[in-house]
Design a protein that fits this description.
By secondary structure, the chain is α+β, with helices and mostly antiparallel strands. Helix content is 54%, strand content 14%. It has a 5-stranded mixed sheet with strand order 6-7-8-10-9. Strands 1-15 form a two-stranded parallel ribbon. Strands 2-3 form a two-stranded antiparallel sheet. Helix 3 packs antiparallel against helix 9, helix 9 packs antiparallel against helix 10 and helix 19 crosses helix 21. Bound molecules: zinc ion. The site of zinc ion has 4 residues, from helix 19.
């Protein structure tokens, strides 16, 4: 969406004073710093094929896009009360290189702080005079302290406490300075009424029953503040259009993780990948039965597969479109729904492909041998990503340590996240090879999946060893290097040894699965201590990656086209 479209909503809703901006470095220096920061996000056009949608569904889709746009304005306001005035100021200032660079950075990060640059007080502000990013966001009253809010919530009777600590209220000060919980349906009344209207109109156009149900129920939720039925309807969506729109993730509430930020993902179901998933689903028990572990550790009867949807994004907004782009999500977060129905994973295939082209391919150009670079392949990458998700459901989960029944998660404690992510990765490669050998997957994957995995290891490690994925990847890379499946070549690049890689992947799969089966926390900690490290040769490659983009900056061209179409058809 062009910024101007998203901002139209804003301009209509925000009328607050502008903030003083003090000069720091010279404008030229500020511009060059900002441009360098912005260039870490590679611009990319995001498209999806809407040709097969009948005219009524296309019109419904355009209305969903309009509703999604509103979440941009809501999200800005939720993050910081100063966001909307600051954006209006940036839009109204006389044009200059500095204004453009700041506006660009603001829109990338949805605020005046750089999402990739952490200082001692959180993300670094790039506009002079801006305060540190408030950990309470704009969910709690300005001037309140965490202790005050905590004490007040604890003092409430159960029903009120649930509301005050709930996803869908803000905390404000009432007339006498007392704290009160304000439902989102009141706090954001104007925007939510508009979104409800758009979703209802979309519901009246679509002829797909589960989509109609979700749109109607979500519209009702915006007005009633009760999201339960619409979350249930979202879990049951089975339509060519897959909309996710509403208040969801709680990370912006750094005080308590209570309050949900608005976001939207409007996407189309990918039928080919959906069929592939179904095919894999029917192989899972067979894969489990052939996992390279002692037979007693295998699960003779796997539970139902958690639902996964593969979609192509048309538009994302709000919390779902800033900084490093979301390429997949598990929702809802509301425990009432997850206890009833579990969660659904949605994977944005075209966003993953854009990241693959703009980030992974350039990384492989630096990190891999010439021969291996040419075999790095998106289909292998995406198929492995699907397999990774499926593998979380396989292997030991409920285990026995001595005589005690427990879970791998409880036994491994803080080491679990790292081990489980690494297990899903490596068992995913093992499973792909198993399906190739069985004739379920094309033999071409043998040629592409290992080199693609090696390239993507450098991408994950680049984000650092501070989180489970990065640590898990470092363990795998180093273990396979030690077992000859990968080679560090004299010219500073890395390559796959086709003669040794299969055995190495199988061996490491055995290691992780056995570790989880035995709940051996000490061994897990040892493994993390010795292998979740960046060795000198890997460091050299990481240093050479400094000019490769970190992520993408999407431009949603299909959404722009649909919106233009809709505007033209309603114009007088
Ligand atoms: Zn995972």
């Amino acid at each position: 969406m062009p910024p101007s479209a998203a901002l139209a909503v804003l301009a209509a809703t925000a009328m607050a004073p502008v903030l003083p901006v003090a000069p720091a470095a010279t404008p030229e220096v500020q511009v060059s710093v900002l441009e360098r920061q912005n260039s870490r996000f590679a611009p990319v056009e995001i498209t999806a094929n809407v040709d097969r949608l009948p005219p009524n569904e296309r019109r419904a889709l355009a209305l969903m896009l309009q509703a999604a746009q509103v979440t941009d304005a809501l999200f800005l306001r939720q993050i910081w009360a100063g966001n909307e005035p600051m954006l209006l100021q940036l839009l109204s200032e006389p044009d200059s290189a500095l204004r453009r660079a700041r506006l660009h950075a603001f829109l990338l990060g949805k605020g005046p702080w750089s999402p990739l640059d952490q200082g001692p007080k959180g993300p670094v502000a790039f506009i002079p005079g801006v305060p540190p990013k408030p950990p309470a966001a704009n969910f709690y009253p300005a001037g309140a302290t965490k202790a005050e809010v905590e004490k007040w919530i604890a003092s409430l009777p159960a029903a009120q406490r649930a509301k005050a600590a709930g996803f869908f209220t803000t905390i404000r000060r009432g007339p006498e300075g007392k704290l009160v919980a304000v439902p989102y349906s009141i706090e954001y009344q104007g925007e939510l009424a508009r979104m409800a209207e758009l979703l209802r109109e979309a519901a009246s156009l679509t002829s797909q029953p589960t989509l109609k149900a979700f749109l109607e129920k979500r519209a009702a939720a915006f007005l009633s503040n009760d999201y339960h039925d619409s979350d249930v309807a979202w879990m049951k969506l089975d339509a060519s259009i897959e909309p996710t729109v509403g208040p969801y993730e709680v990370y912006e509430d750094e005080w308590f993780n209570y309050k949900a930020a608005f976001e939207a993902f409007i996407a189309l179901r990918d039928d080919a990948e959906t069929a592939k998933l179904t095919r894999f689903g029917s192989e899972l028990q067979d894969i489990e039965n052939h996992l390279p572990i002692e037979p007693r550790y295998r699960n003779p009867k796997l539970g139902a597969m958690a639902p996964i949807r593969v979609v192509n994004s048309i538009f994302s907004a709000g919390d779902g479109n800033r900084g490093v782009q979301t390429a997949g999500y598990d929702l809802p977060n509301d425990e009432r729904i997850t206890a009833e129905l579990g969660t659904k994973r949605v994977m944005l295939k075209n966003i993953q492909e854009a990241k693959f082209q703009k980030v992974l391919v350039p990384i492989s150009g630096v990190a891999l041998s010439k021969l291996d670079q040419d075999r790095v392949d998106f289909d292998a990458f995406f198929t492995h990503t699907l397999m990774h998700e499926l593998m979380h459901g396989l292997g030991p989960h409920n285990i026995a340590v001595g005589r005690q029944r427990t879970t791998a998660r409880q036994s491994l404690q803080e080491a679990y996240g790292t081990i489980e992510e690494a297990k899903a990765d490596i068992a995913g490669l093992f499973a792909m090879q198993y399906l190739v050998d069985k004739g379920v997957l094309d033999k071409k994957y043998e040629d592409t999946m290992y080199v693609t995995f090696l390239a993507s290891a450098f991408r994950a490690i680049r984000f650092g060893l501070g989180e489970a994925h990065g640590r898990g990847t470092a363990i795998q890379l180093n273990w396979i290097l030690d077992h000859g499946g990968f080679r560090a070549d004299p010219d500073g690049t890395f390559s796959v040894d086709p003669a040794k890689i299969k055995e190495a992947v199988k061996g490491l799969t055995t290691e992780f699965l056995t570790l989880e089966a035995q709940g051996d926390r000490k061994k897990a900690q040892e493994m993390i201590g010795t292998l979740a490290v960046i060795r000198p040769q890997v460091k050299t490659v990481l240093d050479r990656l400094s000019t490769v983009p970190v992520d993408i900056e999407p431009r949603y061209v299909t959404a722009e086209k649909l919106m233009d179409e809709a505007a033209a058809s309603t114009a007088p």
